[in-house]
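Re: Re: ligand-bound prediction request (bumping)

Still looking for help on this. To restate: I need the protein modeled with alpha-L-sorbopyranose bound, output as structure tokens. Inputs repeated here so nobody has to scroll up.
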Amino acid sequence: MTTEPLDIGVLGYKFMGKAHANAFARLPMFFDDAPELNREVVVGRDEEALAEAADSLGFSRTATDWRDVIDEVDVFYNLGPNHVHSEPSIAALEAGTPVFCEKPLAPTLDDAQSMADAAAEADVPAGIAFNYRFIPAIQYAKRLVENGELGEIRHFRGRYLQDWLTDPEAPWSWRNDEEMAGSGALGDLGAHTVDLARFLVGDIEELSGHLRTFVDERPVEGENETRPVTVDDAYSAQVAFENGVMGTLEATRMANGNKNNHTIEIEGTKGSLRFSLERLNELELLREGGRGYETILMTDPEDPYLDHWWPPGHVIGWEHTFVHENYEFLSAVADGGAYEPGFADGLAVQRVLDAVERSDDGREWVAVE
Ligand code: SOE
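Reply:
Sorry for the wait, this slipped through. Here it is.
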């Protein structure tokens, strides 16, 4: 158990850098027993942007090469684009530094396997940022399933709908590039849904997947050129779980009108539940013998994590999921404990993503390998 403050180094300071830095700042205010942290160093390539990020996100210093920081810090956060997940994460683990990596674990199954191997060899936690596991309603749902309150589970349905690429003129980014991202909606959004499917229901055995790219090239912002889109804009899959549950999965960046709409539905022989990220303080539950769904407001102190926040009825938001996951991860680091979801979970999800691609290629059902 460490009592010294943990020195944190983060690679990346944009969207995810802010989400995690916000969590680091909130932890000492709301989680009394969280380990003490130093926001030590932020790493990136652009020195001017780095200096601004260090200032606004509260880091003491900056560095332009992750190699210089991985064995200087107590925890290394890899919040960069997918193609920079594997090399720095593996090097940090080999240096004995705990790693927390954004999802999906890697652009390819091979890279994900190397990362999971490095994590298995290392004596320190290697966490993956599946933050939606840490929504109170999702943890509550897991307990309901585990306690048998829904009976035998028959169906799982997960959809993650966004619309920011609906417009063919929306600019190209690394998220549209196979080399850098691996896949599109499949890896970026589908990874979350597959993780929740595994968390709530179990592992997927085989599937039939379908990928689609609607817009083949996009303009580069500020330049008079376009670049090819080499990943999917949308995927869907029919899945068979190892335990006999039947499922359907879907994600798209072109569901016009849907900003960040992640929904999970589970039906069992005794009861059912429905969850939407757009109403994350609620869980819809059909109890055994009930005539319809009731909406449970998840803001009571006995609900997971909520004793740390506000009085009942005072809702929490998307950013709190990062506080909860960081609380669990950093506590595991400080206590020398284990953390889930880890790189092995990231690899398990990647196997499903890979199966969707293989199935789409061959236009056939495939086993998740
Ligand atoms: C993509 O738009 C994105 O930011 C994902 O990368 C995140 O994982 C998801 O939580 C929200 O949407």
